[in-house]
Design brief:
The chain is of the alpha/beta class. The chain is built from ten helices and nine strands. A nine-stranded mixed β-sheet has the order 2-1-3-4-5-6-7-8-9, sandwiched between helices. The longest helix has 22 residues, at 216-237. It binds adenosine-5'-triphosphate, 2-(4-methyl-thiazol-5-yl)-ethanol and magnesium ion (MG).
Length: 267
């Protein structure tokens, strides 16, 4: 099983540069620039389009959609809803990043409504995944207060309840579709010190979903494996959080397609 997953992930990483999928991102103000640069570095084509007047039309043209509620407000929420509905109608995958969804009543309500639109993959940190399953965790804002280990059971519950793929990031990462499971090891302790890397990971997850021919379990793993590999390479050269961010983009844009799969520990 692990070897099959590794082969699938290596194939996805090489396919990215050939296919150059168009990834429609409705993300937060903090994440937009780094997410677009990360998508370009892995070989995808980003477009940040959020107006409700055009988000639905664009979602049906794009190869995949990302919805991230990091700085959500009512007008943006309308854009997210019409885009997710259009992606579903056009048979395009969409990834949901429920940033700090537990923090306020407004976010909880926005998240509940987006969850009814059946996201293809949900990518969050441990605190976000624990709270999404209805348990209480240690999160207060956008950073996780819980470990991935503590979020595993919540991830399994969510995957089965919503028939979706759950991708949990942290010091090591965990992916499940309710039946299969994978752990991804690597990255760097500098990663949580660079804002919106998790948001960029969700955008990368959407890019892999676009080319995964419905193997969304492997798409989620591929994105994490690329981040684990590039994060570790970048840490070898970084002098701090600033140079790490630059070195991370360099490492992503020069990835050897067979290297990320070696970061998959089990499945
Ligand atoms: N201590 C760590 N060691 C190695 N890698 C890490 C560590 N913490 C996070 N990462 C990696 O950083 C990336 C972002 O994950 P993280 O869990 O920090 O997302 P997040 O909390 O949603 O981030 P943000 O909200 O700032 O975008 C993932 O690829 C994850 O594997
Ligand atoms: C810092 C921050 N605030 C809202 S979204 C975001 C980016 C990391 O999730
Ligand atoms: Mg996040």
């Amino acid at each position: 099983m692990t070897n099959q997953t590794r082969d699938n992930v290596s194939a996805l990483v090489s396919r990215m540069r050939d296919r150059k999928p168009l990834v429609h991102c409705i993300t937060n103000y903090v994440a937009m620039n780094i997410s677009a640069n990360v998508l370009l570095a892995i070989g995808a084509s980003p477009a940040m389009i959020h107006a409700p007047e055009e988000a639905g039309e664009f979602a049906s043209i794009a190869d995949a959609l990302l919805v991230n509620i990091g700085t959500v407000s009512p007008h943006w929420f309308n854009g997210m809803s019409v885009a997710a509905k259009a992606a579903n109608a056009a048979g395009k995958p969409w990834v949901f990043d429920p940033v700090a969804h537990f923090a306020t009543a407004y976010r909880r309500e926005a998240t509940a409504q987006l969850m009814t639109l059946a996201p293809t993959i949900i990518r969050g940190n441990a605190s976000e995944i624990i709270a999404l399953a209805g348990a209480s965790g240690g999160g207060r804002g956008v950073d996780s207060g819980d470990s991935v280990e503590q979020a595993k059971e919540a991830a399994r519950t969510l995957a089965r309840r919503y028939c979706t793929v759950i991708s949990v990031s942290g010091e090591h990462d965990f992916v499940t579709d309710g039946k299969r499971e994978a752990i991804i090891i690597g990255g760097s302790a500098w990663m949580p010190s660079v804002t919106a890397l998790g948001c960029s990971l969700s955008a990368t997850t959407a890019a892999f979903a676009a080319i995964a021919e419905k193997n969304f379990f492997c798409a989620a793993i591929a994105a994490l494996a690329c981040f684990a590999e590039a994060g570790e390479k970048a840490a070898e050269r970084a002098e701090g959080a600033g140079t790490f961010a630059i070195a991370f983009l360099d490492a992503l844009s020069t990835l050897d397609s067979s290297a990320p799969a070696q970061r998959i520990a089990s499945s």
